[in-house]
Amino acid sequence: MDSNTIRIGLMLIILAWTVISAITYMARRSGNKDALRQLKREGQPLRRLGAEEQALVQPFLVRPAKPTQSVALLNDGVFPLRGAFVRHGLESSHGAATLHDTLGGVDVVLPYDARDYLREDNQAEVVLTEKFAIVVALNGEFDLVGGREREARRQKQNQQWSSGKLGEMQNVVDADAVTAEGAGQTPDVQAEHEFAEAMRVEILSQREETPAEIAWRRPAGIAFWPAMLGLAAFVCMGVAAAGGGLAWLVSAAAPALLAVWLTWRRRPLGAAQKVNRVRGELNAIVLTNPANAQAVSTQLFLGDKLPVTLPDHWRANLELPDDGRVDVDLRVEDYAVLRLGNRFSVDEEQRLFPRVAWGRHVTLALAGLIAGAAFGLVGGDDLRGDVALTSAWARGFQPRVYDSATALAQDPPAPGDVVALKGMGRCQFQRDAYRQDEVRFDCERIRWQGDAIQADELRLAPAALALYSGAFLKTRPNPMMDMLVRNQIYGSMAGNPLAAYNARNVSAVTVNRVTDLVLTIELACEAATGQAIAECDRLKAETVDSLMLARDEPDSWLALLRLAQGGALKQQRNADDGVIITRAADLLRDLARSSMEPQVREALARAGNDLMARQRGGVVLQVWPGRSAPLPPLPPLAHMPDLLQPSAPPTPLPAAARETGVKDLANNSLKVIADHIRACSFLIVDGVIPSNEGRG
């Protein structure tokens, strides 16, 4: 099953679930509207709405979904309504929700704190509007007058809490009569007094947060932006190290400095919030989830007014006085506990044991690991060298000087030591990673004071070498033929000035020794294999088409070859010469080189493998290029347009290496190495420098 099938299946499931939810919602809404219509049609009012109730119900005569639209009562009748309370609606993935409160299937509005008096089966008195009903009494415990009074007390309590006014906090609900036994008092009076004492909460004082409490409230964060800025600085430095130039290195300074400033700056504490010190009895209330009886939680309250959440490590050693009354410092904004009695204090904990910003450390560590891993992948060898060089610098280690490879072999340096070497080094020949039958120059592995390699003659057929080098096509200028060709072109293109202008550089040259040319091509192409055969066929066809002879005009290569083999081209009137356009001559040389390249590459591979097998003597050093160790720039053979063209070394080679012919080819194409004497500083890394390979 592919990903598209899974995606389509998920979309179909979501679509089906959406359709089912919409149908269920519309069915419920239809049932709610039917229940309201039935209540309007069949309901009998219990009584008339009083004048005080009419005034109290006015703030709720607005549509719940659109508070700006007011509605009116259908009449002043108060109707009975019985049933379970159900809230339903729709929620979108973006967080938007449309919810409806229903009682007995009828849309209702619960004013004030009527929701606190709901039961599993409810008996309510409601007044009707066009779209919903408003509850004016519920379960014999709630009415509009009592709800308004409790709301006023609640507002007064909130104002007292915010302002920190000293004294006993306002009760929202009066102490109920509790049946209890007591000595010297009637049971109801004693129970009511004990309940009132348990619910009583006093505000003792108000203060502002201490700096330690502010720091505890405002953690340091996870250092996201410093980490991102640090990675940006690493990227800029990486581009600069890869050859981006000084501009990238300078541009790395801005994010690096900003990251350091964001990391180490002294963060402002921010505005201090208000803290109230209160006294009251600490009560534990067990809360259960009506939908899940197994979900039970315990919430601490101070009296019946203030929720209290203690840190977990405080609960283990919590000891309450006999009467259960404690002094607690609570933040006004969120009721956070800052002090409990005389034993627990956030201020003292923060000052003595500051909170460790683990998230901050982890983020910065991850950013460093990512940058280090990227740096290690890009330049792993340089990283090892940098670590070793830094270690040597920190230890104050002085470079060890060696005058010869023999001294280095007898007393090798320890891993991490810095050494200074001076002498003659030759780049190593290594097998090419992509062409196993060929060799490549590895100037990061230098053989110090090794035996000089004498290159043999390049074993390549003279005909193939002539075709590859272009020497098979010998030409000389022919001014008279140039003039004739141009006059002919200009005459044929008199009506096209642009074409005549483009033909101004067309010239012709005389081809010498046409017989040798044809025989050389035939001889060299006999050894061609693979794709080179097609290149040779094209070379032959282009030769026949472009070569102009004095008398004979062969129409195929076979006819031209017969003329050359029979000596017809050397007769007195032919003089073994021909004429060719210079552009055609250049094309023939290119085709000849491409057709002979496989043979030349094979010959170079044989010579290179032979030279690699004869590397002897000295000590092989692993060297990375740097300011103190410039290495010769040697392009691989695969990237050289001419395999027989010697690469220029960084400094002139000794006179003994300046030979000519095929041997010069081997010396310069296969032995372009650091033969010149230069001073270098090498870093010795464990297991890499020096090597025992080829030690003489």
UniProtKB/TrEMBL annotation:
InterPro entries: Ala-tRNA-ligase_IIc_anticod-bd, Ala-tRNA-synth_IIc_N, IgaA. Residues 663-696 form the Alanyl-tRNA synthetase class IIc N-terminal domain. It is found in: Cell inner membrane. Pfam families: IgaA (PF07095), tRNA-synt_2c (PF01411). It comes from the Bacteria. Belongs to the IgaA family. One of its GO terms (molecular function) is ATP binding. It is a multi-pass membrane protein. GO terms for cellular component: cytoplasm; plasma membrane. The chain crosses the membrane at residues 6-27, 222-240, 246-264, 361-380. One of its GO terms (biological process) is alanyl-tRNA aminoacylation. Keywords: Cell inner membrane, Cell membrane, Membrane, Transmembrane, Transmembrane helix. This is Intracellular growth attenuator igaA.
